[in-house]
Design goal:
By secondary structure, the chain is an alpha+beta fold. Helices cover 12% and strands 29% of the residues. The chain has one helix and nine strands; from the N terminus they run H-E-E-E-E-E-E-E-E-E. The protein has a five-stranded mixed sheet with strand order 3-9-8-5-6, with no helix packed on it.
């Protein structure tokens, strides 16, 4: 018994000491400010600033393939639809072409499977058990309807793809 206790202590002491010793490297805190400016929310899309252009070349020729009306491509996003309390929340979703919708079963009382049905036959009827998901990426614009069996009247929705 005592040899096991000593072995455990010998293993724990270096681990504890390793956590207490600094390696001298200073890591800046993302939320620190210099006191003159407000903190910046690095997770917010609204606080994005373009990089500064330090190029001093005045005679820059635009690329032949560039157009003035071109908008940058949006990164595909995911939208969660919760299947819970015998409802689909939200029941109406508006997304962009290329975005993914994720349905997840959160029904807890009682825990039961639901069958997700595409009224437009985009996917085969899919059974989703508690805490599981089903994902579908919408690559065509339009309006698509879905329902959830066995509660199709209360658990249904519309997805509009722009």
């Amino acid at each position: 018994m005592i040899p096991k206790f000593i072995a455990i202590i010998l293993v724990l002491i270096p681990l504890i000491l390793a956590g207490c010793v600094e390696n001298g490297e200073v890591v800046p805190d993302d939320n620190e400010t210099d006191g003159d400016s407000p903190p910046v929310d690095n997770n917010s899309k609204n606080n994005m600033t373009p990089p500064e252009d330090n190029d001093t070349d005045v005679n820059v020729t635009p690329d032949v393939n560039e157009t003035a009306n071109e908008t940058p491509a949006k990164k595909p996003e995911s939208v969660l639809i919760r299947l819970q309390s015998y409802a689909s929340l939200p029941s109406e979703v508006e997304i962009n072409k290329g975005d993914t919708v994720v349905w997840q079963n959160f029904q807890t009382d009682p825990k039961r499977p639901f069958t997700l049905v595409s009224e437009d036959r985009l996917w085969e009827n899919t059974t989703i058990v508690y805490r599981q998901t089903f994902k579908y990426t919408f690559n065509e614009t339009g309006t698509y309807n879905f329902s959830v069996r066995p509660f199709s009247q209360r658990m249904s929705g519309t997805i509009t793809v722009k």
